[in-house]
Amino acid sequence: MSQSEASMTVLDWLGVLRLEQYTEAFQTAGLTTLGECRSLTQDQLEQMGISLPGHQRRILANRGERRPVPEQRQTVPRRQKQEEGDRERERPVPKERTKFRSSAPLESSSSSLTSLTSDAPLPPVPPRSTPNCPPQRFTAALSPSPPPRTPVSPKLDRNAIQTPTVQNRSVSTSTSTQAPLHPPDPSPSQCRPQSLAFLPPALHSGSNGGRKNSPVSPIPSPTESQSAPPLPPKTGAAPKGPPPVPQRLPEVYSKGIISTAFITNVSSVGELKFEVVTSNRTFIFRAESEAERNDWVTVLQDCTGGRSRHSTMNPNSPLSSDFQGYLELRGLRSKLYTVVASDKVFLYKNMEDYRIGVGITSIDMNVGNVKVTDRRSFDLTTPYRIFSFMAESEQLKEQWVDAMHNAIGEALSNSEVADQIWMERSNSLCADCGAPKPEWAAINLCVVVCKRCAGQHRGLGPSISKVRSLKMDRKVWTEELIQVFLSLGNERVNSFWAANVPPSEALTPSSCSEERRRFITNKYRQGKYRKYHPLYGNQKELDNALCINVQSSDVLETLSLIFCGADVNCSTGMPSCPSPLSLAKAHSQLLQAELIKNNLNTVGLAMDVNPYSPPLCVSHNGFLYKTASMARAITERKAREEFSRRWCTLNDGTFSYYESDKNSNPNGALKASEIVCLAVDASDRHGYDHTFELYSESERLYLFGTDDADSHKEWVKSIAKSFIPASAEPLLRLGFERIGRLKCKDGLNLQTSKVGWFALVGSTLHAYLEDSRGEEIHLRKLNELSIQQDNEVLVLVERGRTLYIEGERKLDFSGWCGAIQIAAGSGGDTLSQQQLTETDIPIIVHSCIGYITQCGLTSEGIYRKSGVNSRVAALCERFRRDARSLCLREGEHQVDDVSTTLKRFFRELEEGLFTSEDAKTWLSTASIQDESMKISQYQMLLNRLPHVNKATLQALINHLYCVQRVSDLNQMNLHNLAIVFGPTLFQTDGKDYTAGRAIEDLIQHYIHIFEVRVRAHARASYIMLCISTTPGGHIICTVYLEEKKETATIPGSMTAAELTCEVLDRRNIPVKDKEYWSCWEVCNKEEMERPLHYQERVLPILHSFGTESHLLIKKYHSMEAMICYLVDVSKHGLMKFREERSILGLGRTTGSFNDRYFILTSNSLRMYKEVRSNRPEREWPVKNLKVYLGIKKRLRPPTCWGLTVVYESKKQEKPEKQQWYLCCDTQPEMREWFATFLSIQDGLQQTRVSRALPDTRHGNVSLIPLRGSENEMRNSVAAFSQDPLAVSQPTNHWD
Q1: How far apart are the first and last CA of the chain?
Q2: Would you say 1266 and 1093 are in contact if contact means Cβ atoms under 8 Å apart?
Q3: CA-CA distance, 338 to 329, in Å (whole number)?
Q4: Looking at CB atoms within 10 Å, which of 127, 471, 988, 1263 has the fewest?
Q5: DSSP 1079
Q6: Residues 922, 925, 931, CA angle at the centre, nearest 5°?
């Protein structure tokens, strides 16, 4: 650096570099002259606030040091450069005019050489790190350039352009696909160039002008005089080259470039010459020396020979562009084909030249600026020239400006962050479309995306997607954020964002903008394809899980929680760490903190979108036989003649059928998304052995058949795979008879239907509902199966659960209803094929035993007398058709008919109760003399029985054990029962007593063989009402009096009030003032109890008891507090509600308590979702409700003041039972609700008992009537408040 240069002020120096905006920063740093800036480093520039990489490189390159300049044209000959002592710069001497070859000689005079007239020298090209360019020396800044040597006049060979000496060549830069060619560097590590730039030689007046034009017609030299226009060729010459550019180009821009991707051969030809061969042209160049020529040949041969090793570009492939088209360069009459690629703009004469890789020049955008000047015009300004372009339309102008702005950004970008992010393999592909090398990222969504997808992300807005560049937004990329992207990666993040993308909606790198917009909106705004978190929909649990997870290193789980609804600003409940962000920082989880920080203002995704589950991609083809499609169910058999042979294919989610395998146009097609049901017919249903039915959304039915079982199985499997989603994939592994999609309702929300996938296998219905695991419904164990609401709803009721299946389409729904009803009925003559109870006992056995226990236990000759054959046959048929719907009633059915029906069932049972293979072993065991050995052998055989057989045998023997206990009334002792049931159960002819002896042993040793516990045995008689009866036929049962066991004789007509009085009289317990005694039904298992109405008959209550229930006589200490509420006939308010829901097939309860608004009136109990709701969610008639005090503790009720409500339908044809739980906030509130229930139910009973109680001492105790009329109830309350013992009407005892 000369002394004058060192003393230049910073203001003047920055003005030359066009960076005047940094003058204040330099002055603040104490730098006033150029000499003081020689030691500047990149870190110092960062501290001064100069962060743009392009500006940093420009300043560092022009601070006075001599640095390699890859893009700077060499204007000094090599021999002059090597003279270190000569620092004097001279003005360059203009080159001679270009000489065009033609078929006729050109008549032109020699052009005078002119020199540059500009006083100020041109600023140098800022140095750039271009990997494909050999290094060059930077000429001294701000000093005149020495004149180059005048080039030797070259000789032109045929079909070639010769180049001046290499020392006089200047090389232009290019992208990775078109880089300029320079003299080779001696170092072996030099990168090969990918384009060859050249200037046309000067034309001398005495040169050979009779040769043909060059294949490339270059633009005139920028150094020629403006008064010397190019000489036009004479008539007959070859087509002339491109029109001259009116503005003068500095030598930083070449006159021609050859893409090395199109070079096919490079070889030395003649003296100092070498030829470059492309697929379309051959170029011959001449160097100044043999060494220079050899260097050029070596570099170019390495370029072409190493293409397969170093480049993915194939020969003759054009430059990969970001935007391309024709632009008019102002001053020219023709248009230039312009290509924007990466950080450069390339100019071509036309599209053909672009395709063959021969261009005019390239413009580096790191020193460029784009400015709109007119409606269709814009300027590309560089330090050396202003390119004024005009587009064909205003819309195209905007696109050109955007493309060039992107190129400028690319040129000024820093790839350090991008290289780090791409170290994670999955980040090297766009997370949305799969395009390679994505350079943008949504920092809050943690996805790396390409430029085209990033544009659609910006359309979502910063509240959803915060888009940042990997190369330009350097300050955003903290070390923590980079580590978040490295730890996650696009692959792991897409396991959440794109877990359920259907193949038809997936993006590809070639997808259009509209497809990208739709997909990205669905993916990130709607969350359509995301993997739903198990806690989705439960805000409190999501927030708690977020606070817990931010303390760990699982960033993906945090991302899932945030975008499934967790609040990043929720309260943690800890004063020291009030938010998840502070909690993450406190536990040194910096990556978690970075993710939360980027999502503090993110808007939550749509929460009401049903997730989409993509179908499995399958394909299959072959011949099938098809009938015409139908709009109604198939009721008749289809003969073989009604089927037509068709070639069928299943590809890309479409099932098509053709006239033959040679036709290209299908006769019809059915998309997998349109298939709603697939039914597999029985083998003898139609003319072909194996058939299946397809039901479509458009209410059409398609019937296909084949005689090949393997082909039929493969077709059914493939079609099911095509439309069953991945969430229900386990259904495909079942041997289903029918599979498809249905809408259903269950649980608390009966207003909104859920989509479920169902498969019917035998008598089991497998279901996969939304957001739930697979469930199994055992159809033969249902409490109710009915079709309601004009055949549009199929109701399945099991213990603690009711499922409503809706008929969205009549055609397939009618098929489902018929198939489910058949599967729920008795499917055969074996025990396992019968309709069963919850304890796996056939309903026919359970109903007959229950009826005989209640109505025929004391009937003389029970089981020995035969019923009427016609009535027995009718009963058997009704039980066989649907045992669940038949209810045996006293007076309507005869005891002997029912007992004969039970015996006939066991007699006709296939395989028998003891199974055919073990029956003989059972009979031989009866002959064992040793009682203990005999019992052990019976126990071993009992355990070998199937589960249903074992449960049925135990229920039957228990019943017979109870029958023989009252043999003094029914005359059926142990021996008589054995005679009747031995041949029946073992299905023998009864000629000997072997079978009877076995049954006698089972009844006699019932307690030991079946291992009945003492307590269970003591209650068994009480439950089945078969311990003993009085001579009058009254039942004797156990009643507890305040934890003391009592035995009471219960006539069939005894009421709760009479039982209470009898027990109190027997114990001589006086009733004191304001003491309220009553009879309670207590269920230990359910942890609930209720007082019986004074008129309720006790016998039916005993019939309905379970093993964990009993009667209890006790005082009701809270009665005094409830009296004031007993006059209310309505009530409303908020309570917490929970329904008894069970996971189908597993028997485990699920659900939680939710706030609901209830209105209780004299007719119904209505439940609303909230106070402002207009329509009730549920409604029940009060007359069918039983209200119990208490809730099971394992349900974890929110308060200890709860009620259990049981709903029992009174319809005998369609019995229904439901159970749910209510929680009140306070004890007085619970008492008020309970008293109101009792008051309303009391008003439903219009009659009063008139029978006087047997003991006036206790019988005239005034109890509040729970089922009397409203007036009677109020009168009773008023009388009771004056004198509790003055009322003589019989009433119930309250404790």
Answers
A1: 112
A2: yes
A3: 10
A4: 988
A5: E
A6: 135
**Which helix (DSSP H) or strand (DSSP E) does residue 933 occupy?**
helix 931-944
E-strand stretches of 287-390: 323-329, 335-341, 344-348, 358-359, 361-364, 369-372, 377-381, 386-390
In DSSP terms, 654 is beta-bridged to 651, 671
Instruction: Kindly state the greatest CA–CA separation across the chain.
Output: 152
∠ CA 955-958-961, rounded to 5°: 150
- The answer to whether 410 and 343 have CB atoms below 8 angstroms apart is yes
d(CA 821, CA 803): 15
For 1069-1200, list the strands marked E by DSSP: 1077-1083, 1088-1091, 1109-1115, 1131-1139, 1141-1142, 1149-1150, 1154-1160, 1164-1168, 1178-1181, 1185-1189
Give residue 605's pLDDT. 59
The span from the CA of 673 to the CA of 755, in Å, is: 14
Distance CA 427, CA 443 (A): 13
What is the C-alpha to C-alpha distance for residues 562 and 434, in angstroms, rounded to an integer? 25
Pairing of strands 1077-1083, 1035-1041: unpaired
Of 210-214, 1134-1138, 1256-1260, highest mean pLDDT: 1134-1138
Q: Dihedral of the CA atoms 1275, 1278, 1283, 1286 (nearest 10)?
A: 0
Closest CA to 546 of 483, 503, 593: 593
Report the pLDDT value the prediction gives residue 1, as an integer from 0 to 100.
Answer: 56
DSSP string for residues in 1021-1065: HHHHT-S-B-TT--EEEEEEETTEEEEEEE-TT-BHHHHHHHHHH
Q: What is the DSSP letter of 219?
A: P
Q: In 1182-1276, where do the E strands start and end?
A: 1185-1189, 1202-1208, 1217-1223
Q: Annotate 423-464 with DSSP letters as a single string.
A: TSGGGGB-TTT--BS--EEETTTTEEE-HHHHHHHHHH-TTT
Residues across the chain: 1295
Is the whole-model pTM more than 0.90? no
Scan for tokens 């009479």, then name that residue. 1058
> Which of 592-606, 794-808, 953-967, 1037-1051 is predicted least confidently?
1037-1051
